[in-house]
Design brief:
alpha+beta, Arc Repressor Mutant, subunit A, 2 domains, 232 residues, single chain, 10 helices, 4 strands
Length: 232
């Protein structure tokens, strides 16, 4: 399976420290994991970085893997399931927040997994990777193409405007919310961003829903007026 144009060697001289088990390569070499499964395990350890981090949120691991696998969601899911089945990645669901976390299948990871499952321990913020590192986050154009659709020159200009106006984390969250609501259009993403800007992000879900719908309608009417003005 191809994941884009093969690179000619490495692009960076910078090094990165990873806390890998001493038997990491031997265990993977002796496993039945295919290339994608091995890459998924490597992605988990890459995100964890140091031994201080215990787990990675499901959405973050899958986002990182999708970037690696050129947006091939099915491949990511299959690779993840394969790595879990082989015991190299452990899955834990927090019943309180309904989030899924992934831990490494190391002795320490297994101990933590047992304690978490038994309710003896809880994951705290400093132990969990909940966002991609800045250098690994997709730019706004990749974010659009991965979640909304093909990029056009006009849309690229709109994205540039929004990137200048809103924090990137807002844009990421707005895209995620639009996808969750199955509203894959940038107009809807803009409606979310405008609603947050005008009314704040701390309003209740119902208030947010109403303000987003109202903003979406306003943007739709504006777009219709612009189109009718051009055609007249």
């Amino acid at each position: 399976m191809s994941f884009g144009t093969p690179p000619q060697g490495f692009d960076r001289d910078q090094t990165k420290s990873l806390a890998l088990p001493a038997d990491f390569f031997r265990s993977l070499a002796q496993s039945t994991l295919d290339r994608e499964g091995i890459l998924m395990v490597l992605t988990l350890f890459d995100l964890l970085g140091t031994a201080d981090n215990l787990a990675v949120e499901s959405s973050v691991l899958l986002e990182a893997a999708e970037l690696l696998f050129n947006g091939q969601k099915e491949t990511c899911q299959q690779a993840l399931e394969q790595a879990i089945q082989a015991g190299f990645i452990l899955s834990y669901t927090d019943e309180e927040n309904q989030k899924v976390y992934y831990l490494p299948g190391t002795p320490q990871g297994r101990k933590w997994h047992e304690k978490l499952t038994a309710g003896q321990e809880k994951l705290v913020g400093g132990q969990v990777i909940s966002r991609l590192p800045l250098e690994e986050r997709p730019n706004i154009y990749k974010l659009y193409e991965a979640n909304i659709g093909p990029l056009t020159p006009i849309m690229a200009e709109m994205l540039k405007e929004d990137e200048a106006e809103y924090p990137y984390e807002w844009i990421e969250d707005a895209v995620a919310e639009a996808v969750e609501r199955n509203k894959r259009s940038w107009r809807y993403v803009r409606a979310i961003l405008n609603a947050w800007k005008e009314r704040g992000r701390d309003t209740t879900s119902k208030q947010q829903e109403e303000s987003i719908v109202e903003e979406y309608r306003r943007l739709y009417q504006e777009q219709r007026k612009r189109r009718s003005g051009k055609s007249s």
